[in-house]
Amino acid sequence: MSQLYYEPAEPWAYAVFMNSEVFVVQRDVDRWGKRIDCSVSPFVKVSSRDTGGAWSMFEGVVAPGFAPPLHLHYCQEEWFQVNEGEFIFEADGTQYALKPGESILIPRMIAHRFQNTGTSAGRGLILTQPSGTLEKFFEEFLSLLEYTGVSPIVFTRIARFESALRLKGSSSLESWTAIAHMLGYHDQMHMTRDFHVLAGDSPGRSIMQVEPEHIMSALRQKEAF
């Protein structure tokens, strides 16, 4: 079974005051007018400060092949709409293929994940109700870029690649297919792609010796991600 990540069940409180201001948010900028690298992380378009914490809206650009790990939210519903690209969503063990213009609602406490199955970047909207702490999470996610020098998506792929190496090294009886599933890859093919990008070889041969220059070269070639 894939590793399941739980959203921290920390309580939150918000004022009942709701913003009465009418506002327009331009493309590729956040709610506050800040232009951002939209390929790094989802960014807020309607803030919890606008709705008194009732709901928030985010926009995200998702690299081809990218998939977050299986996870759930204790206190929020999430609604996703695909605007560009093709995605597979998995919710409560069932998979759903979504094309542009289609959407899916995932209730709280339902384990879910998604993946951009296309060959180019996908784009979509995410609505959470109530707002909860997701806005804070995405802000902290974006701050990873300042500390690591690479985008959170690249950082996540490197961390997952290293986890795969450690799992195989600690238990040679564990199959690569089982490791791919355990770490939340959509399938073994997507894990193999990461190994070729980061290590320059297949998983089986990479376990013998991973050359650091392969990873550094991949980081310099951002289009590989």
Q: For this structure, what is the CATH homologous superfamily of the largest domain? A: Jelly Rolls
The H-and-E topology, N to C, reads as EEHEEEEEEEEHHHHHH
**Widest β-sheet, arrangement of strands:** 2-3-10-5-8
Name of the CATH first level of the largest domain: Mainly Beta
Spatial shape? globular
Going by CATH, the architecture of the largest domain would be Sandwich
User: Averaged pLDDT, please?
Assistant: 79
Helix content: 25-40%
**Strand coverage percent:** 15-25%
Uncertain residue ranges: none
Number of helices: 7
Radius of gyration (CA) equals 18 Å
CATH topology of the largest domain: Jelly Rolls
The assigned structural class equals alpha+beta
Q: Count of DSSP E strands?
A: 10
Multimeric organization:
single chain
Structurally, how many domains make up the residues?
2
Profile the largest sheet: 5 strands, antiparallel
Separation, N- and C-terminal Cα atoms: 26 Å
List the helices and strands and how they pair.
Layout lengths: L4 E2 L36 E4 L1 H4 L4 E7 L8 E2 L4 E8 L2 E5 L2 E5 L4 E4 L5 E5 L5 E8 L4 H15 L3 H19 L5 H7 L5 H12 L3 H4 L5 H9 L5
Parallel strand pairs: 1-4
Antiparallel strand pairs: 2-3, 3-10, 5-8, 5-10, 6-7, 6-9
Labels describing this entry:
Arc Repressor Mutant, subunit A, Jelly Rolls, 7 helices, 5-stranded antiparallel beta sheet, globular, alpha+beta, 225 residues
Give structural notes:
It is a single chain. By secondary structure, the protein is α+β, with helices and mostly antiparallel strands. The chain folds into 2 domains: 5-146, Sandwich (Jelly Rolls); 152-224, Arc Repressor Mutant, subunit A (Orthogonal Bundle). The protein is 31% helix and 22% strand. The chain contains 7 helices and 10 strands.
